[in-house]
Amino acid sequence: YPAVRGWLSIPGTGIDYPVLQSGEDNPEYYLRHDYRGNYDVNGSLFLQTGCLLEESRNRIIYGHNMNSGAMFGNLEKYAGYEYWQEHQQGFFQTKDGIEKYVIAAVLKADVSMFPFQQVIFQDQEAVEAYVDQAKERALFKTDVSDADCETVLTLVTCSYEWKEARNIVVAVRVQE
Fold it and tell me: What global pTM score does this model have?
């Protein structure tokens, strides 16, 4: 399946899915399709168009906020500090290996409040500034450091507090 770019797994959350990516001609194709290209109301998790794994320092993954908990339906639970404490780590596997991430910030925002769609950063300091901005808007403080952070994983799904609201989880890559 050529559209598969990786696999996202966050133990204990129900998030354990392939991550796909479509072309610029139909960037939200996988919002309503599975990895085989079949129509699926749940859709799939998918990378933002233009997010190139070899170049982008921010791996932005979208998914539906399903009432069943499927896809990113459980991302809403991260609004609770206790849930975050129990589910801080996630893994993103690509053809190059497994990347481990720790969740540094959980926020509710829209693109006018937080630039979650940014894929290119000039340097490591710019990545750290992105994470710092997420932490400033976060629902609660975490003790996760963004020092020496080179790569970020941003998970995005709908939220319903206002038009265009999003549940956003920002995680920093941990070097092992």
Answer: 0.95
